[in-house]
Amino acid sequence: MGDVIIAGIGQTDVGEHWDVGLRDLALAAIEEAVRDAGGLKPEAMYVGNMLAPNLSNQAHLGALLADYAGLAGIEAATVEAAGASGGAALRQGYLAVASGMVSIALVVGVEKFTDRIGSQVEAAAATAGDSDFEAVQGLTPASQAAMLMKRYLHENDVPADGFAGFALTAHANGAGNPHAMFRRPIKRDTYARAPMISEPLNQYDIAPSADGAAAVLLAPGERMNSPTFAPVRIAGSASAVDTLAIHDRQDALEFASCGLSAARALAQAEASLGDIDFFEYHDSYSIYAALALESVGFAERGKGWKLAADRAIALDGKVPAATMGGLKARGFAGGATGIYQAVEATLQLQGRAGKNQLKQARRGLIQSMGGPGSTVVSHVLQTAD
Fold it and tell me: What is the rounded CA–CA span in Å between residue 115 and residue 22?
């Protein structure tokens, strides 16, 4: 397997793009990534998308976007793995280039939540769970996360505002991200006064669903002899699944797939958790951020919330996380999420993160999740030596 580098990146603002269609969002990110890569032309395109058939009445995105981007004739296909769709598409692009079967691969993630509103969006999002045993009972992703958080609070000694640190960190970092949906920090009392959405999850424990697109161009290492910026290498890539339904697991508060995929990606990169300078977790819900930190190994069981409470995940903390706002402040752009993470990690590693630039950023772990850890894709990105 050959070295694979991220040769170019592109992204749109995350938000409510009522007047922009799915294909136009994707095109904007693709064109920016191609410019950033110095005009490299892809041989294949992998599209990460979660809900376009449900929300936008549009499937077959590979052909649609290739045609719209002027790339007719290339290989193109859509990859779906719920919220992990972007990460899964990135892995497919990585495997294609690393194997030598594809020279230049374009990976684009795109989602349009605002093509539908209200209960239609909730019903579509519920398709990421077990339809026969969960969704049919009225279980939504938020209510499922709320039940896990309630169990977590029951088993562990967590104060009432114990999860506030996740939202405070995300919004503080989102303030420095020009592409984030929310660009203002919040105070602890703002979190405390937030309305309850699904007890015990309040408004600030839930990432907002939003529209957006992000893209990366992948190339073999030897193609980047004189880059404008230091090349970023995908040093490790791995994916793992757990049961789709929570009730089929022996331990609901262990996201085993988070630990498995991270361990495999780290092993491939010949790195340990101690070598990771920042962690982009999938904080669609604050409880998921805590469980990811614990399952990957950054915190002991029942102690993930303390990393946020003690500011250990802040930009100047021991384990910087959600460095550009995460899903909570950047916005949860469905199947584009994993590509946004790759773009943001690349900015950190290339010293292009602006106000949010970490002092030391040589190696980062990014992790995207479908459902409550049902599918997890992890990548280790690092500066190329």
Answer: 9
Domains of the chain by residue range: 4-117+207-383
**DSSP per-residue letters across 247-285:** GG-S-TT--HHHHHHHHHHHHHTT--GGG-SEEE---SB
Torsion angles phi and psi, residue 206, rounded to 5: -125, 130
3-state secondary structure of 128: helix
Dist. CA 145–CA 201, nearest whole Å: 8
Is residue 188 helix, strand or coil? Answer: helix
Structure tokens given for 245: 């339904």
Q: What is the DSSP string of 28-62?
A: HHHHHHHHHTTS---SEEEEE-SSIIIIIS---HH
Q: Which helix (H) or strand (E) holds 345?
A: helix 337-349
Q: Quote the tokens at residue 383.
A: 């500066």
Whether the predicted pLDDT of 329 surpasses 60: yes
- Alpha-carbon span 132 to 109, nearest angstrom: 28
Please tell me the predicted confidence (pLDDT) of residue 226.
Answer: 46
- Segment 302-314 mean pLDDT: 98
Provide the pLDDT for residue 314.
98
Helix, strand, coil percentages for the chain (3-state, nearest 5): 40, 20, 40
Alpha helices in 160-206 (DSSP H): 164-174, 188-193
Dihedral angle sign, alpha carbons of residues 345, 350, 354, 356? positive
pLDDT cut 70: percent of the chain above it: 98
pTM: 0.97
- The dotted CATH code for 4-117+207-383 is 3.40.47.10
- 30 in Cβ contact with 74 (< 8 Å): no
- 3-state SS assignment for residue 238: strand
pLDDT tens for 154-210 read: 999 999 899 999 999 999 999 999 999 999 999 999 999 999 999 999 999 999 999
> pLDDT (tens digit, 9 = 90+) per residue, 215-232?
999 999 876 654 567 889
Query: How many alpha carbons lie under 13 Å from residue 138 in its C-beta half-sphere?
Result: 0
